[in-house]
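Lab meeting, item 3. Inverse folding demo.
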């Protein structure tokens, strides 16, 4: 995933080679992207959607402690950042939140390779989120168990949006079983997906739910023009190619309406919901 950011500091303000000790302003180019410290640790975001996230971090020399093992602080940073990305996938962009507390349990040392953290949010009450992460070594052995609590900094009404996230295999299986559902195909780098459409999805999903039409999401890109896998690219092409978000109606395992690209306004989503419900009920589209 391409994790660009704009860091405004004395160095960029024309003060030569002097290193600033703060305060610093950092403006991320994307909501789900890495901050300077996380880039410094060479983290990579592989997945961040539906309250789950997967990140990795190579064990470079600078991350070693005195005994030659990966520093425990680096492992905790990876786990904490993975949970941050999981939360970011649920709340509106620019929602301010911080780590309030955490607990870590070290299971075994890591002396080589790449560490991978898998995180998920398991509880929220509007202002507080709790979650867990496990860090694995390259042999898929658990290295660290991590749990933490995050709090929204300013009191505000936050409605996390938990959406079923499907893989290409999940989509194909549901289609083979002749299921009827709506599939929203998105890219995590896409502002139309994360900033414009996402805040308006709760009403759309509830309208479909009332008509007993399940809603699922499939994230196919984290970096522009780079698919997560060949399977993600192939299934995207089958549904009409790039252009996000693309909202598809599948009826009895067959694609019935796929050319719904960049439907991001409340009015547009309301019309689309009515169209989908009409089709499922056997009525002419638009009635």
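The presenter then showed the designed sequence:
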């Amino acid at each position: 995933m391409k994790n660009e950011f704009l860091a405004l500091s004395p160095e960029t303000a024309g003060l030569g080679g002097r290193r600033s000790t703060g305060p610093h302003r950092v403006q991320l180019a994307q909501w789900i992207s890495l901050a300077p410290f996380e880039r410094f640790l060479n983290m990579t975001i592989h997945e961040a959607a539906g309250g789950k996230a997967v990140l990795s971090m190579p064990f470079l020399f600078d991350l070693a402690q005195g005994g030659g093992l990966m520093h425990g602080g680096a492992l905790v940073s990876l786990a904490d950042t993975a949970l941050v990305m999981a939360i970011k996938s649920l709340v509106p962009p620019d929602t301010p939140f911080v780590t309030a507390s955490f607990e870590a349990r070290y299971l075994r040392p890591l002396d080589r390779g790449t560490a991978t953290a898998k995180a998920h949010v398991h509880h929220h009450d509007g202002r507080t989120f709790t979650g867990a992460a496990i860090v694995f070594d390259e042999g898929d052995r658990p290295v660290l168990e991590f749990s933490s609590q995050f709090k929204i900094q300013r009191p505000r009404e936050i409605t996390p949006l938990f959406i079923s996230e499907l893989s290409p295999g999940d989509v194909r299986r549901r289609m083979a079983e002749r299921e009827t559902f709506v599939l929203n195909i998105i890219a995590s780098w896409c502002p139309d997906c994360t900033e414009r459409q996402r805040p308006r999805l709760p009403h759309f999903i509830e309208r479909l739910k009332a008509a007993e039409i399940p809603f699922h999401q499939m994230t196919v890109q984290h970096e522009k023009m780079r698919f997560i896998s060949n399977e993600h690219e192939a299934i995207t092409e089958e549904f009409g190619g790039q252009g996000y978000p693309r909202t598809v109606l599948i009826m009895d395992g067959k694609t019935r309406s796929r050319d719904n690209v960049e439907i991001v306004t409340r009015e547009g989503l309301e019309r689309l919901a009515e169209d989908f419900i009409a089709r499922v009920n056997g009525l002419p589209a638009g009635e």
